[in-house]
Design a protein that fits this description.
This protein has five helices and four strands; from the N terminus they run αββαββααα. The chain is mainly alpha-helical. 27% of the residues are buried. Pfam families: CASP_dom.
């Protein structure tokens, strides 16, 4: 009390506004956890592309298809040998080369086509994944085209391997009821190259069939 007048106490200062920092931190934490859960099935590459499990499977199958096709073609085009064989007491000069048989030429043509196709698919997939940052298979139309190509090459590989197997078996066993010898006894290196080439041709057929199955799985889930 001063000079007979009663003084009222000063009102308390207003409380400070609640800080937005805890709320912002909470929201940022929730968003980080959600982004972490969404990004668990993906692997970030050094270039910034996203490698999903499906993309890894597709790229692996493409690499296997190209590797088996190149191996089959390489062994066939190097199948050549010069040797001698005894026929009714006469020594005959034998000169064998893959280009002497239409079936072997067909196998080389099919494997060369498959190699070029697989290389093209790898280049397209790599450019989409690393440069454009897009999925390896961007649309259903693209998936149908790839599926058709894989199916055609799988059947072509099967037919090429089957045709070459008939000629290779004839070289090894001869012709029934005739005196033709087993030419593979004298042309062992040639026959071995042909056998390995045919084996990888059938293996490549299996790889293209697996790629076609992977295409069907993608189409069924997208």
């Amino acid at each position: 009390m001063m000079n007979g007048h009663k003084t009222e106490p000063a009102p308390p200062p207003p409380p400070p506004p609640p800080s937005a920092t805890p709320r912002q931190l909470t929201e940022a934490k929730v968003m980080a956890e959600e982004n972490g859960r969404q990004g668990e099935p993906c692997v970030r590459s050094k270039t910034g592309g996203t490698l999903t499990k499906g993309n890894v499977v597709v790229l692996t199958l493409r690499l296997l298809c190209m590797a088996t096709s190149v191996t089959a073609m390489s062994f066939m085009v190097t199948a050549r040998q010069v040797s001698a064989a005894s026929f009714y007491g006469f020594q005959l000069q034998l000169h064998s080369k893959w280009s002497f048989s239409y079936s072997f030429e067909y196998l080389v043509g099919v494997t060369a086509t498959a190699t070029a196709y697989s290389l093209l698919q790898l280049l397209i997939a790599g450019s989409r994944l690393l440069v454009k940052k897009s999925p390896v298979i961007p649309s259903r139309n693209q998936a149908w085209l790839v599926f058709a190509g894989d199916q055609i090459l799988a059947y072509a590989m099967m037919s090429a391997g089957s045709a070459a197997s008939g000629v290779a078996n004839l070289n090894r066993t001869g012709i029934r009821h005739t005196a033709l010898p087993n030419f593979c006894k004298s042309l062992d290196s040639f026959c071995d190259h042909v056998t390995v080439s045919i084996a990888f041709t059938f293996f490549s057929c299996v790889m293209y069939a697996a790629a076609a199955v992977q295409d069907v799985i993608w189409l069924s889930t997208h």
